[in-house]
Amino acid sequence: MGTLETTVKNRSMKITKIRPQKRNSCSICGKAQVTRKFQEEYYCANCYAQWFKKKTCKQCGQLKRIHREGELCLECEKLTDCVRCGKTSGTFEIGMISRYGAVCSSCTRYFREEIECSECGKMTRDRYRSLVTNESVCLQCYRRYTFATCKNCRRYRKVHNQEKQLCKKCDEKLLSTCSKCKGEMPSGYGNVCPDCARRSLLFNMIRLNGHILRNKAVKTAYKKFIFWYMRKCGISVVLHKGSDFMRFFIDCDDIWQKIPDYAELVTHFKPNGLRANLTVLRWLLDTNQVVVDEALKDDLAEMQRIQSLFNKLKESIPCIASYYKLLQRRYDDGKTSLKSVRLALQPAIDLISSQAVTDYPTQEQLNNYLSEKTGQIAAITGFINHLKSAYRRELKIDRKLIQQMKAKQLKKHYSKRLVELYKQTELTTAEQMDLLSVVLYSLHGIEIKKPKFDAIVLIDGVAYYRDNTKDYFLPQDIYLRIKPQF
């Protein structure tokens, strides 16, 4: 094997030595006969005598061999706290003595140098020997040969009996008695069966979460909800999701000191908030603690949607604010509903936000918006009338002009799309359908967003698209590009 030039640092020692690439060779002279390892460095008998002189330990006062730059003997260095996790000396098993001090067995792996796993190639600090190649492997690769699911307790553990595939506890004794319910169970479970273990976890969860709540009424309600949830979904689901509903009970504890009626709940949480706590709401309905007021629920949902519309505006627009006040007066007088208010506001706010209107919309901005969203002509009429009467704005809805603008935009869009599709050598099914739609609009002016391939017919070798009773001509090259569909 070759040699590697390294700089060995031990305490204050900084000297360059030729160290052979051999495992556990002396860090000073490179000889293979090593008698002592100290702080991740190896020493042969001669080098150990040179670097470890007899002197008095400052802690125990005994004459011992101590590193020339050190002050404490090995036994006294072991009495220090773990340098990584801080465990108190004497309370842990020493894994190694690093150059920084004593390290417990749990933290030892963090002081090892990473090496490459001989099987998967990942860098790891673990040190395991493969049962096949006898080379160093990571924990994951090591477990492939030594770990499996025990056929008795169904736990993934180290296999003790390879023939029967049993873990150590199950191999020694197949069945044992649960210390709580006294029922039989596989020995691999330990002292308590899974059902008793889950019940203990459930009661611990109820007790710990109960400490968060201050009022007895809310604590009792939380316990009743958990037991109802357990009967509906099982104890495993409750353990997994039971703590997700604590926010609901904490809010009830802080605001009402009890579980309030539906009106207060929906006013505080809003319909979307109650949907997030739908399981708790089902419990309240199932136990007849609340009665849902559908009218109140719908009104609050509409109010929330209206607020979401206003959130689209970066700043307050006077014409929108005055229009909303007008709609509110109509709602207060019973002339309209909240849903109608929201439907009237939606196109008005959409016009302001999409066309970047800062004060009042112009005729050009109105035409551009309606050419893109022709279906909003009826809904936006009320807002246009309000601008005319309140702000003397000369605006009108010219349906003929809007249709012309829309047709021009569609023609431009379809022409651009036709060029894109025609340049492609291969088309997907969706792109072939898109090509057929583009050609029908470009040649015949009909807009069919989702054409059907089975509507294409051949008459005397010429392709046509049949829509109802009318046939529309298709060019030969277009037919050939979509022909594989047949």
Brief overview:
The protein has 486 residues and is an alpha+beta fold.
Written account of the structure:
With 486 residues, the protein is α+β, with helices and mostly antiparallel strands. Among the domains are: 1-74, no CATH class; 196-292; 315-397; 422-485, no CATH class. The chain is 46% helix and 15% strand. It has 18 helices and 19 strands. The chain has a 3-stranded antiparallel sheet with strand order 17-18-19, with helices on one face. It has a two-stranded antiparallel sheet with strand order 1-2. α6 runs antiparallel to α8 (246-255). The longest helix has 25 residues, at 399-423. The two termini are 70 Å apart.
Task: Tell me the number of helical segments per DSSP (H or I, 4 or more residues long).
Answer: 18
| Secondary structure category | alpha+beta
Number of strands: 19
Distance between the termini: 70 Å
Protein traits:
alpha+beta, 19 strands, 15% strand, disordered N terminus
Blueprint (SSEs and pairs):
Layout: E1 3-10, E2 13-20, E3 36-38, E4 41-43, H1 45-51, E5 52-56, E6 63-67, H2 74-77, E7 94-98, E8 101-104, E9 115-116, E10 123-124, E11 128-129, E12 136-137, H3 139-146, E13 147-149, E14 156-158, H4 168-172, E15 175-177, E16 184-186, H5 194-210, H6 216-233, H7 235-241, H8 246-255, H9 262-276, H10 278-286, H11 294-311, H12 318-332, H13 338-354, H14 363-372, H15 377-391, H16 399-423, H17 429-444, E17 456-459, E18 462-467, E19 470-473, H18 476-482
Helix pairs in contact: 5-7, 6-7, 6-8, 9-11, 11-13, 12-13, 13-15, 14-16, 16-17
